[in-house]
Amino acid sequence: MGKEQALMDTSVEVASRQSLPVISFAERDEATLARQLDQAFSDIGFCYFSDIGIDKALVEGVFAASRRFHVQPRAAKDAIAMNRFHRGYMAPKTSIIETSSVAKVTKPNDSESFMLMHEVAPDDPRYGRPLDGPNLWPDLPGFREAVVAYEKAMHGFSMRLLRPLALALDLPRDWFVPYFEQPTTFLRLLHYPPHAKNAAEDAFGSAPHTDYGFITILCQDSSGGLEVRRSDGTWLPAPPIAGTWVVNVADMLSRWTNGRWQSTPHRVKNLSGGDRYSCPYFFDMSMDSTVEVLPTCQGPGRSAKWPAVRYGDYLLERLDKNYAYRKQPEPA
Ligand SMILES: O=C(O)CCC(=O)C(=O)O
Ligand SMILES: [Fe+2]
Fold first, then answer.
1. Model confidence over 195-239: pLDDT tens digits?
2. C-alpha distances in angstroms, 49 versus 21, 95, 173, 203, 292?
3. Which domains does the chain have, with CATH numbers?
4. Distance, CA 268 to ligand 1 centroid (Å)?
5. Distance 207 CA to ligand 2 centre (A)
6. 226 in ligand 1 pocket by Cβ < 6 Å?
7. How far does CA 109 lie from the centroid of its chain?
8. Closest CA relative to residue 204, chosen from 110, 106, 323
């Protein structure tokens, strides 16, 4: 490969790409990881992670919990319908991605989910602010323990990931840490029913969208159906690979990097014929974080493409537009 080609390959996504890169965290030094992360996130904004040090039993536990939750009768799930803090059960066809920059989305998503966010205790000064309130739990023995154990492990890994991410962007290795002392996190236990045979072409389990925050680390079952948009507008499948997580850059991280890392649109159609389960973990900065283009991602000829934004404001605007329950009048 000539030097010019090599340079191009690190900055321009290869339109003919047939698969996403897999980055292994087994015995890799931070500098190597940083290089691989930079390449993947600059190219297509998506990759797989393997060997991230999370016990298989934790993964099996969270999927088992999700299945137990979703097979319950609808009334049991509605008993913990999503509260104004964005926690609880989100019924099918109650989210429509009106803020999609990708497509005119007209149909609500054909999926249901249980949403868990960072816990905010009543004695926490943040308690009661928008999106800072209590989680809701189903009446299922062992459910909470399994879900919290997985969430804790994902949080630990995500904190460790901050260093190679900072190095990849030529920042001091602990640069991101202060933004994540009180992170905004979402663990979503998603269930997709089989895609209806007569469904319209533009009906999706998850319509084309980008994620809002910093980074998303998703574990999927063996059904398949997730697709990632290439820069030429075609869609690349992100099929299940045992022992891996699918990872993507979200809007705030893309904005922080002045677009060097891409917040890539993705979508889901569950064509497996059976139920599909996935568990995305959204690891985002504290609500009060100001996201302003990084000093290392701007300079002469690379002026900042976005003004500074407070993450909590950006997030609220998105949620208010995309979720039906947020459009109802507040209960008295
Ligand atoms: O279920 C999936 O594979 C993707 C889910 C997703 O993109 C999301 O919840 O933001
Ligand atoms: Fe997503």
1. 988 888 888 999 999 999 999 999 999 999 999 999 999 999 999
2. 9, 28, 20, 29, 27
3. 22-327 (2.60.120.330)
4. 7
5. 9
6. yes
7. 16
8. 110
